[in-house]
Design goal:
Length: 507
Protein backbone atom coordinates (compact mmCIF):
# COMPACT_ATOMS: atom_id res chain seq x y z
CA UNK A 1 0.00 0.00 0.00
CA UNK A 2 2.80 2.38 0.87
CA UNK A 3 4.40 1.71 -2.48
CA UNK A 4 1.28 2.52 -4.49
CA UNK A 5 0.61 5.70 -2.52
CA UNK A 6 4.16 6.95 -3.17
CA UNK A 7 3.69 6.24 -6.88
CA UNK A 8 0.53 8.34 -6.87
CA UNK A 9 2.39 11.20 -5.21
CA UNK A 10 5.11 11.03 -7.89
CA UNK A 11 2.51 11.03 -10.66
CA UNK A 12 0.79 14.08 -9.17
CA UNK A 13 4.04 15.99 -8.79
CA UNK A 14 5.14 15.14 -12.34
CA UNK A 15 1.79 16.22 -13.74
CA UNK A 16 2.15 19.54 -11.89
CA UNK A 17 5.60 20.00 -13.40
CA UNK A 18 4.21 19.27 -16.85
CA UNK A 19 1.52 21.88 -16.38
CA UNK A 20 4.06 24.42 -15.15
CA UNK A 21 6.41 23.71 -18.06
CA UNK A 22 3.55 23.98 -20.54
CA UNK A 23 2.68 27.36 -19.07
CA UNK A 24 6.30 28.50 -19.34
CA UNK A 25 6.48 27.49 -22.99
CA UNK A 26 3.52 29.64 -23.96
CA UNK A 27 5.04 32.53 -25.98
CA UNK A 28 4.24 36.11 -25.14
CA UNK A 29 2.57 38.40 -27.62
CA UNK A 30 5.93 40.08 -28.32
CA UNK A 31 7.62 36.74 -29.01
CA UNK A 32 4.75 35.83 -31.34
CA UNK A 33 5.26 39.13 -33.15
CA UNK A 34 8.99 38.53 -33.62
CA UNK A 35 8.38 35.03 -35.01
CA UNK A 36 5.57 36.14 -37.29
CA UNK A 37 7.66 39.02 -38.65
CA UNK A 38 10.53 36.65 -39.35
CA UNK A 39 8.23 34.28 -41.21
CA UNK A 40 6.41 37.07 -43.05
CA UNK A 41 3.00 36.08 -41.67
CA UNK A 42 0.81 39.21 -41.97
CA UNK A 43 -2.17 37.81 -40.07
CA UNK A 44 -0.10 36.65 -37.10
CA UNK A 45 1.71 40.00 -37.02
CA UNK A 46 -1.59 41.89 -36.87
CA UNK A 47 -2.95 39.47 -34.25
CA UNK A 48 0.14 39.87 -32.05
CA UNK A 49 -0.09 43.64 -32.27
CA UNK A 50 -3.75 43.48 -31.25
CA UNK A 51 -2.71 41.37 -28.25
CA UNK A 52 -0.45 44.20 -27.10
CA UNK A 53 2.94 43.05 -28.40
CA UNK A 54 5.85 45.48 -27.97
CA UNK A 55 6.53 46.92 -31.43
CA UNK A 56 10.26 47.20 -30.64
CA UNK A 57 10.56 43.53 -29.69
CA UNK A 58 12.82 42.06 -27.01
CA UNK A 59 16.12 43.19 -25.61
CA UNK A 60 18.37 41.13 -23.38
CA UNK A 61 22.05 41.49 -22.49
CA UNK A 62 23.26 39.77 -25.64
CA UNK A 63 20.86 40.73 -28.41
CA UNK A 64 18.30 43.23 -29.63
CA UNK A 65 15.62 41.57 -31.69
CA UNK A 66 13.05 43.79 -33.34
CA UNK A 67 10.20 42.56 -35.53
CA UNK A 68 11.15 45.19 -38.15
CA UNK A 69 14.70 43.85 -38.47
CA UNK A 70 13.41 40.30 -38.82
CA UNK A 71 10.97 41.33 -41.53
CA UNK A 72 13.66 43.35 -43.36
CA UNK A 73 16.06 40.39 -43.31
CA UNK A 74 13.50 38.16 -44.92
CA UNK A 75 12.36 40.75 -47.44
CA UNK A 76 8.79 40.71 -46.10
CA UNK A 77 7.93 44.19 -47.33
CA UNK A 78 4.20 43.95 -46.54
CA UNK A 79 5.07 43.15 -42.92
CA UNK A 80 7.60 46.01 -42.88
CA UNK A 81 4.78 48.36 -43.93
CA UNK A 82 2.47 47.09 -41.15
CA UNK A 83 5.19 47.49 -38.51
CA UNK A 84 6.20 50.97 -39.64
CA UNK A 85 2.55 52.02 -39.71
CA UNK A 86 2.29 50.72 -36.14
CA UNK A 87 5.16 52.96 -35.04
CA UNK A 88 8.28 50.80 -35.36
CA UNK A 89 11.56 52.76 -35.21
CA UNK A 90 13.12 52.49 -38.68
CA UNK A 91 16.60 53.39 -37.35
CA UNK A 92 16.73 51.13 -34.29
CA UNK A 93 20.05 49.15 -34.32
CA UNK A 94 20.75 45.59 -33.21
CA UNK A 95 23.79 44.64 -31.10
CA UNK A 96 26.08 45.09 -34.11
CA UNK A 97 24.66 48.51 -34.97
CA UNK A 98 22.79 47.14 -38.00
CA UNK A 99 19.60 48.98 -38.81
CA UNK A 100 16.79 47.47 -40.87
CA UNK A 101 18.25 49.00 -44.07
CA UNK A 102 21.63 47.34 -43.44
CA UNK A 103 19.95 43.96 -43.08
CA UNK A 104 17.77 44.38 -46.16
CA UNK A 105 20.81 45.47 -48.21
CA UNK A 106 22.93 42.57 -46.96
CA UNK A 107 20.23 40.06 -47.86
CA UNK A 108 19.56 41.54 -51.32
CA UNK A 109 15.99 42.71 -50.54
CA UNK A 110 15.50 45.47 -53.11
CA UNK A 111 11.78 46.16 -52.57
CA UNK A 112 12.29 46.28 -48.81
CA UNK A 113 15.21 48.71 -49.22
CA UNK A 114 12.99 50.95 -51.35
CA UNK A 115 10.22 50.90 -48.75
CA UNK A 116 12.58 51.63 -45.86
CA UNK A 117 14.09 54.62 -47.67
CA UNK A 118 10.63 55.97 -48.43
CA UNK A 119 10.00 55.72 -44.68
CA UNK A 120 13.05 57.88 -43.91
CA UNK A 121 15.60 55.20 -43.13
CA UNK A 122 19.12 56.65 -42.75
CA UNK A 123 20.77 56.08 -46.14
CA UNK A 124 24.34 56.47 -44.83
CA UNK A 125 23.94 55.05 -41.33
CA UNK A 126 27.10 53.32 -40.10
CA UNK A 127 27.05 50.23 -37.90
CA UNK A 128 29.47 49.72 -35.02
CA UNK A 129 32.24 48.74 -37.47
CA UNK A 130 31.55 51.69 -39.73
CA UNK A 131 29.70 49.80 -42.49
CA UNK A 132 26.94 51.67 -44.32
CA UNK A 133 24.17 49.89 -46.28
CA UNK A 134 26.21 50.64 -49.44
CA UNK A 135 29.38 49.06 -48.03
CA UNK A 136 27.35 46.07 -46.86
CA UNK A 137 25.76 45.55 -50.29
CA UNK A 138 29.10 46.10 -52.08
CA UNK A 139 30.84 43.54 -49.92
CA UNK A 140 28.08 41.04 -50.71
CA UNK A 141 28.09 41.78 -54.44
CA UNK A 142 24.43 42.77 -54.70
CA UNK A 143 24.45 44.73 -57.96
CA UNK A 144 20.83 45.94 -57.92
CA UNK A 145 21.01 47.09 -54.30
CA UNK A 146 24.24 48.99 -54.98
CA UNK A 147 22.71 50.63 -58.04
CA UNK A 148 19.61 51.64 -56.09
CA UNK A 149 21.58 53.05 -53.14
CA UNK A 150 23.88 55.01 -55.44
CA UNK A 151 20.89 56.47 -57.29
CA UNK A 152 19.42 57.39 -53.92
CA UNK A 153 22.56 59.39 -53.13
CA UNK A 154 24.59 57.03 -50.94
CA UNK A 155 28.06 58.39 -50.17
CA UNK A 156 30.90 56.40 -51.74
CA UNK A 157 33.72 57.98 -49.73
CA UNK A 158 32.61 56.75 -46.30
CA UNK A 159 35.03 54.23 -44.77
CA UNK A 160 34.57 51.48 -42.23
CA UNK A 161 36.93 51.41 -39.27
CA UNK A 162 39.71 49.65 -41.22
CA UNK A 163 39.54 52.26 -43.97
CA UNK A 164 37.65 50.18 -46.56
CA UNK A 165 35.28 52.03 -48.88
CA UNK A 166 32.40 50.47 -50.81
CA UNK A 167 34.77 50.23 -53.79
CA UNK A 168 37.54 48.41 -51.91
CA UNK A 169 34.96 46.08 -50.33
CA UNK A 170 33.73 45.09 -53.78
CA UNK A 171 37.27 44.86 -55.18
CA UNK A 172 38.50 42.66 -52.33
CA UNK A 173 35.55 40.31 -52.82
CA UNK A 174 35.93 40.18 -56.61
CA UNK A 175 32.66 41.83 -57.68
CA UNK A 176 33.73 43.58 -60.88
CA UNK A 177 30.19 44.67 -61.83
CA UNK A 178 29.81 46.47 -58.50
CA UNK A 179 33.25 48.05 -58.98
CA UNK A 180 32.18 49.30 -62.41
CA UNK A 181 28.94 50.72 -60.99
CA UNK A 182 30.67 52.62 -58.20
CA UNK A 183 33.36 54.06 -60.46
CA UNK A 184 30.79 55.11 -63.06
CA UNK A 185 28.94 56.92 -60.29
CA UNK A 186 32.00 58.39 -58.55
CA UNK A 187 35.33 58.05 -60.40
CA UNK A 188 37.14 60.06 -57.71
CA UNK A 189 36.93 57.16 -55.26
CA UNK A 190 39.17 54.89 -57.35
CA UNK A 191 42.40 55.59 -55.44
CA UNK A 192 41.15 55.99 -51.87
CA UNK A 193 43.42 53.99 -49.54
CA UNK A 194 42.64 52.14 -46.31
CA UNK A 195 44.62 52.26 -43.07
CA UNK A 196 47.40 50.08 -44.55
CA UNK A 197 47.61 52.20 -47.69
CA UNK A 198 45.75 49.63 -49.81
CA UNK A 199 43.71 51.01 -52.68
CA UNK A 200 40.99 49.03 -54.44
CA UNK A 201 43.64 47.91 -56.95
CA UNK A 202 45.83 46.51 -54.17
CA UNK A 203 42.83 44.69 -52.67
CA UNK A 204 41.79 43.14 -55.97
CA UNK A 205 45.35 42.19 -56.90
CA UNK A 206 46.13 40.57 -53.58
CA UNK A 207 42.99 38.44 -53.85
CA UNK A 208 43.64 37.50 -57.48
CA UNK A 209 40.53 39.10 -59.00
CA UNK A 210 41.78 39.86 -62.50
CA UNK A 211 38.40 41.08 -63.82
CA UNK A 212 38.29 43.69 -61.05
CA UNK A 213 41.87 44.70 -61.88
CA UNK A 214 40.86 45.17 -65.53
CA UNK A 215 37.86 47.28 -64.50
CA UNK A 216 40.00 49.49 -62.23
CA UNK A 217 42.66 49.99 -64.90
CA UNK A 218 39.93 50.81 -67.43
CA UNK A 219 38.82 53.57 -65.04
CA UNK A 220 42.38 54.96 -64.92
CA UNK A 221 43.26 54.03 -61.35
CA UNK A 222 46.78 54.76 -60.09
CA UNK A 223 48.71 51.62 -61.06
CA UNK A 224 51.85 52.80 -59.27
CA UNK A 225 50.18 53.53 -55.90
CA UNK A 226 52.16 52.31 -52.90
CA UNK A 227 50.92 50.75 -49.67
CA UNK A 228 52.33 51.91 -46.33
CA UNK A 229 55.06 49.28 -46.72
CA UNK A 230 55.90 50.51 -50.22
CA UNK A 231 54.25 47.73 -52.23
CA UNK A 232 52.70 48.21 -55.64
CA UNK A 233 49.86 46.05 -56.93
CA UNK A 234 52.50 44.27 -59.03
CA UNK A 235 54.38 43.25 -55.87
CA UNK A 236 51.22 41.68 -54.44
CA UNK A 237 50.36 39.85 -57.65
CA UNK A 238 53.92 38.56 -58.08
CA UNK A 239 54.15 37.35 -54.48
CA UNK A 240 50.87 35.43 -54.80
CA UNK A 241 51.66 34.07 -58.25
CA UNK A 242 48.78 35.68 -60.15
CA UNK A 243 50.22 35.37 -63.65
CA UNK A 244 47.29 37.02 -65.53
CA UNK A 245 47.33 40.06 -63.27
CA UNK A 246 51.12 40.39 -63.51
CA UNK A 247 50.93 40.39 -67.33
CA UNK A 248 48.04 42.88 -67.28
CA UNK A 249 49.95 45.19 -64.95
CA UNK A 250 53.16 44.99 -66.98
CA UNK A 251 51.32 45.71 -70.22
CA UNK A 252 49.60 48.76 -68.73
CA UNK A 253 52.33 50.06 -66.43
CA UNK A 254 55.75 48.70 -67.52
CA UNK A 255 57.61 51.25 -65.38
CA UNK A 256 56.51 49.52 -62.17
CA UNK A 257 58.46 46.34 -62.93
CA UNK A 258 61.53 47.44 -60.93
CA UNK A 259 59.88 49.49 -58.18
CA UNK A 260 61.20 48.37 -54.78
CA UNK A 261 59.14 48.19 -51.57
CA UNK A 262 60.26 49.21 -48.08
CA UNK A 263 62.56 46.17 -47.82
CA UNK A 264 64.01 46.75 -51.26
CA UNK A 265 62.03 43.90 -52.83
CA UNK A 266 60.98 44.24 -56.46
CA UNK A 267 58.27 42.08 -58.03
CA UNK A 268 61.02 39.69 -59.19
CA UNK A 269 62.29 39.24 -55.63
CA UNK A 270 58.75 38.49 -54.45
CA UNK A 271 58.07 35.95 -57.18
CA UNK A 272 61.48 34.27 -56.86
CA UNK A 273 61.20 33.92 -53.10
CA UNK A 274 57.66 32.48 -53.34
CA UNK A 275 58.54 30.06 -56.13
CA UNK A 276 56.28 31.37 -58.89
CA UNK A 277 58.35 30.44 -61.94
CA UNK A 278 55.73 31.55 -64.51
CA UNK A 279 55.64 35.02 -62.96
CA UNK A 280 59.45 35.12 -62.93
CA UNK A 281 59.38 34.27 -66.63
CA UNK A 282 56.85 37.06 -67.29
CA UNK A 283 59.01 39.62 -65.47
CA UNK A 284 62.20 38.56 -67.26
CA UNK A 285 60.40 38.78 -70.64
CA UNK A 286 59.49 42.36 -69.72
CA UNK A 287 63.18 43.12 -69.09
CA UNK A 288 63.11 43.54 -65.34
CA UNK A 289 66.39 44.09 -63.51
CA UNK A 290 67.59 40.59 -62.61
CA UNK A 291 70.52 41.99 -60.63
CA UNK A 292 68.43 44.22 -58.36
CA UNK A 293 69.33 44.05 -54.66
CA UNK A 294 67.11 44.14 -51.59
CA UNK A 295 68.03 46.30 -48.60
CA UNK A 296 70.00 43.29 -47.31
CA UNK A 297 71.83 42.93 -50.59
CA UNK A 298 69.93 39.86 -51.78
CA UNK A 299 69.38 39.10 -55.45
CA UNK A 300 66.38 37.20 -56.76
CA UNK A 301 68.77 34.27 -57.33
CA UNK A 302 69.76 34.21 -53.66
CA UNK A 303 66.12 34.21 -52.54
CA UNK A 304 65.22 31.42 -54.97
CA UNK A 305 68.27 29.36 -53.97
CA UNK A 306 67.58 29.69 -50.24
CA UNK A 307 64.00 28.50 -50.74
CA UNK A 308 65.02 25.67 -53.06
CA UNK A 309 63.17 26.86 -56.16
CA UNK A 310 65.28 24.98 -58.71
CA UNK A 311 63.36 26.01 -61.85
CA UNK A 312 63.66 29.68 -60.98
CA UNK A 313 67.38 29.30 -60.30
CA UNK A 314 67.73 27.81 -63.81
CA UNK A 315 65.65 30.63 -65.33
CA UNK A 316 67.73 33.34 -63.71
CA UNK A 317 71.10 31.76 -64.47
CA UNK A 318 70.08 31.19 -68.09
CA UNK A 319 69.25 34.88 -68.49
CA UNK A 320 71.90 36.41 -66.23
CA UNK A 321 74.79 34.02 -65.51
CA UNK A 322 76.91 36.84 -64.03
CA UNK A 323 74.74 37.02 -60.93
CA UNK A 324 75.73 33.53 -59.77
CA UNK A 325 78.41 34.79 -57.33
CA UNK A 326 76.81 38.04 -56.15
CA UNK A 327 76.88 38.13 -52.34
CA UNK A 328 74.46 39.76 -49.89
CA UNK A 329 75.42 42.02 -46.98
CA UNK A 330 76.62 39.02 -44.94
CA UNK A 331 78.72 37.75 -47.81
CA UNK A 332 76.32 34.92 -48.66
CA UNK A 333 76.10 33.88 -52.30
CA UNK A 334 73.33 31.73 -53.76
CA UNK A 335 75.55 28.68 -53.16
CA UNK A 336 75.98 29.50 -49.47
CA UNK A 337 72.22 29.85 -49.07
CA UNK A 338 71.39 26.63 -50.88
CA UNK A 339 74.10 24.65 -49.06
CA UNK A 340 73.01 25.90 -45.65
CA UNK A 341 69.35 25.14 -46.37
CA UNK A 342 70.04 21.67 -47.74
CA UNK A 343 68.81 22.34 -51.28
CA UNK A 344 70.74 19.61 -53.10
CA UNK A 345 69.32 20.17 -56.59
CA UNK A 346 69.99 23.90 -56.40
CA UNK A 347 73.56 23.31 -55.27
CA UNK A 348 74.05 20.94 -58.21
CA UNK A 349 72.64 23.55 -60.63
CA UNK A 350 74.88 26.32 -59.29
CA UNK A 351 77.98 24.12 -59.53
CA UNK A 352 76.98 23.17 -63.09
CA UNK A 353 76.94 26.92 -63.89
CA UNK A 354 80.51 27.24 -62.53
CA UNK A 355 79.76 29.25 -59.40
CA UNK A 356 82.66 30.01 -57.03
CA UNK A 357 82.67 27.04 -54.65
CA UNK A 358 85.47 28.59 -52.56
CA UNK A 359 83.66 31.88 -51.89
CA UNK A 360 83.63 32.86 -48.21
CA UNK A 361 81.03 34.79 -46.21
CA UNK A 362 81.96 37.82 -44.11
CA UNK A 363 82.75 35.44 -41.23
CA UNK A 364 84.89 33.25 -43.47
CA UNK A 365 82.47 30.38 -44.02
CA UNK A 366 82.47 28.40 -47.25
CA UNK A 367 79.46 26.56 -48.62
CA UNK A 368 81.13 23.35 -47.43
CA UNK A 369 81.35 24.63 -43.85
CA UNK A 370 77.66 25.65 -43.85
CA UNK A 371 76.55 22.30 -45.27
CA UNK A 372 78.72 20.40 -42.77
CA UNK A 373 77.39 22.39 -39.79
CA UNK A 374 73.79 21.66 -40.86
CA UNK A 375 74.44 17.98 -41.47
CA UNK A 376 73.73 17.95 -45.21
CA UNK A 377 76.06 15.07 -46.09
CA UNK A 378 74.88 14.80 -49.72
CA UNK A 379 75.80 18.44 -50.36
CA UNK A 380 79.13 17.93 -48.59
CA UNK A 381 79.81 15.05 -50.99
CA UNK A 382 78.74 17.20 -53.99
CA UNK A 383 81.06 20.04 -53.05
CA UNK A 384 84.07 17.84 -52.23
CA UNK A 385 83.66 15.94 -55.51
CA UNK A 386 83.83 19.21 -57.43
CA UNK A 387 86.29 21.17 -55.28
CA UNK A 388 88.39 18.89 -53.03
CA UNK A 389 90.77 21.75 -52.13
CA UNK A 390 88.14 23.46 -49.96
CA UNK A 391 88.01 20.58 -47.47
CA UNK A 392 90.37 22.23 -44.94
CA UNK A 393 89.48 25.90 -45.45
CA UNK A 394 88.84 27.50 -42.04
CA UNK A 395 86.44 30.30 -41.08
CA UNK A 396 87.20 33.33 -38.91
CA UNK A 397 87.39 31.20 -35.74
CA UNK A 398 89.62 28.65 -37.36
CA UNK A 399 86.80 26.13 -37.77
CA UNK A 400 87.02 23.78 -40.75
CA UNK A 401 84.07 21.78 -42.08
CA UNK A 402 85.22 18.88 -39.87
CA UNK A 403 85.13 21.04 -36.73
CA UNK A 404 81.60 22.22 -37.57
CA UNK A 405 80.28 18.73 -38.27
CA UNK A 406 81.87 17.29 -35.11
CA UNK A 407 80.56 20.07 -32.88
CA UNK A 408 77.02 19.53 -34.21
CA UNK A 409 77.26 15.74 -33.92
CA UNK A 410 76.86 14.96 -37.62
CA UNK A 411 78.90 11.75 -37.68
CA UNK A 412 77.96 10.88 -41.29
CA UNK A 413 79.38 14.22 -42.46
CA UNK A 414 82.47 13.59 -40.31
CA UNK A 415 82.98 10.24 -42.04
CA UNK A 416 82.47 11.81 -45.49
CA UNK A 417 85.07 14.51 -44.79
CA UNK A 418 87.63 12.04 -43.47
CA UNK A 419 87.14 9.78 -46.49
CA UNK A 420 88.01 12.82 -48.60
CA UNK A 421 91.29 13.11 -46.65
CA UNK A 422 90.58 16.24 -44.64
CA UNK A 423 93.01 17.21 -41.87
CA UNK A 424 91.73 15.18 -38.90
CA UNK A 425 93.92 17.03 -36.39
CA UNK A 426 93.35 20.60 -37.61
CA UNK A 427 93.20 23.13 -34.76
CA UNK A 428 90.85 26.06 -34.25
CA UNK A 429 92.20 29.40 -33.01
CA UNK A 430 91.65 28.07 -29.48
CA UNK A 431 93.68 24.97 -30.22
CA UNK A 432 90.69 22.63 -30.43
CA UNK A 433 90.50 19.54 -32.59
CA UNK A 434 87.24 18.14 -33.97
CA UNK A 435 87.45 15.57 -31.16
CA UNK A 436 87.54 18.35 -28.54
CA UNK A 437 84.38 19.89 -29.97
CA UNK A 438 82.53 16.57 -30.20
CA UNK A 439 83.53 15.70 -26.62
CA UNK A 440 82.55 19.07 -25.22
CA UNK A 441 79.12 18.76 -26.87
CA UNK A 442 78.68 15.19 -25.65
CA UNK A 443 78.49 13.56 -29.09
CA UNK A 444 79.87 10.11 -28.26
CA UNK A 445 79.00 8.55 -31.63
CA UNK A 446 80.91 11.30 -33.40
CA UNK A 447 83.86 10.84 -31.00
CA UNK A 448 83.90 7.11 -31.74
CA UNK A 449 83.93 7.84 -35.47
CA UNK A 450 86.87 10.25 -35.10
CA UNK A 451 88.83 7.85 -32.89
CA UNK A 452 88.15 5.07 -35.39
CA UNK A 453 90.07 7.14 -37.97
CA UNK A 454 93.13 7.56 -35.67
CA UNK A 455 92.66 11.16 -34.59
CA UNK A 456 95.26 12.26 -32.05
CA UNK A 457 93.53 12.03 -28.63
CA UNK A 458 96.48 13.50 -26.75
CA UNK A 459 96.24 17.02 -28.19
CA UNK A 460 95.48 19.69 -25.60
CA UNK A 461 93.65 22.91 -26.34
CA UNK A 462 94.49 26.44 -25.13
CA UNK A 463 93.15 25.54 -21.68
CA UNK A 464 95.38 22.53 -21.47
CA UNK A 465 92.58 19.98 -21.76
CA UNK A 466 92.25 16.91 -23.91
CA UNK A 467 89.02 15.70 -25.50
CA UNK A 468 88.78 13.03 -22.77
CA UNK A 469 88.81 15.73 -20.10
CA UNK A 470 85.81 17.46 -21.71
CA UNK A 471 83.90 14.25 -22.18
CA UNK A 472 84.44 13.25 -18.54
CA UNK A 473 83.28 16.70 -17.39
CA UNK A 474 80.18 16.33 -19.55
CA UNK A 475 79.45 12.95 -17.92
CA UNK A 476 79.95 14.39 -14.45
CA UNK A 477 77.61 17.30 -15.19
CA UNK A 478 74.94 14.93 -16.47
CA UNK A 479 75.20 12.79 -13.31
CA UNK A 480 75.01 15.85 -11.08
CA UNK A 481 71.96 17.08 -12.96
CA UNK A 482 70.35 13.66 -12.58
CA UNK A 483 70.99 13.66 -8.83
CA UNK A 484 69.59 17.19 -8.50
CA UNK A 485 66.45 16.24 -10.38
CA UNK A 486 65.92 13.31 -8.00
CA UNK A 487 66.57 15.42 -4.85
CA UNK A 488 69.53 13.25 -3.83
CA UNK A 489 71.98 16.06 -3.21
CA UNK A 490 73.67 14.26 -0.34
CA UNK A 491 74.65 11.39 -2.61
CA UNK A 492 76.34 13.39 -5.38
CA UNK A 493 79.70 11.76 -6.25
CA UNK A 494 82.65 13.87 -5.15
CA UNK A 495 85.13 13.05 -7.86
CA UNK A 496 85.49 12.00 -11.45
CA UNK A 497 86.37 8.42 -10.56
CA UNK A 498 83.06 7.95 -8.79
CA UNK A 499 81.20 9.51 -11.70
CA UNK A 500 82.88 7.21 -14.21
CA UNK A 501 82.11 4.15 -12.08
CA UNK A 502 78.47 5.29 -11.80
CA UNK A 503 77.90 5.31 -15.56
CA UNK A 504 80.62 2.97 -16.80
CA UNK A 505 83.81 4.20 -18.45
CA UNK A 506 82.96 3.34 -22.03
CA UNK A 507 84.86 6.21 -23.59
Amino acid sequence: MEKSSSTKVKRKSSSKKEKLSSKKKEPTATEKLITAAQQGNREDVIRALEEGADIEGLRDEEEIVTPLQNAACGGHTDVVVILLDAGADVEKPNKHGHQALHLAARNNRLTTCQELLQRKAHLNAQDYQGYTPLLTASRSGHVQIVQFLLQAGALTDLQEHGGYTALSCAARSGYHEVVDQILSNDPKSKDTADDRGYTALHCATRSGHHLVVEALIKHQCNRSALTNSGETALHLAARSGYHEIVVHMLNNEPKCKDVADGRGYTALHCAARSGHNIVVEDLIKHHCNINGLTNSGETALILAARSGHHEIVVQILSNEPKCKDVADDRGYTALHCAARSGKNIVVEELIKHHCNINASTNSGETALILAARSGHHEIVEQILSNEPKCKDVADGRGYTALHCAARSGHHIVVETLIKHHCNKNALTKLGETALHLAARSGHKETMDKLIQYDIDISIKDSEGKTAQDYFTEDKENKIRKLYHENDQLQDIPKNVTEVKSSIGDDS
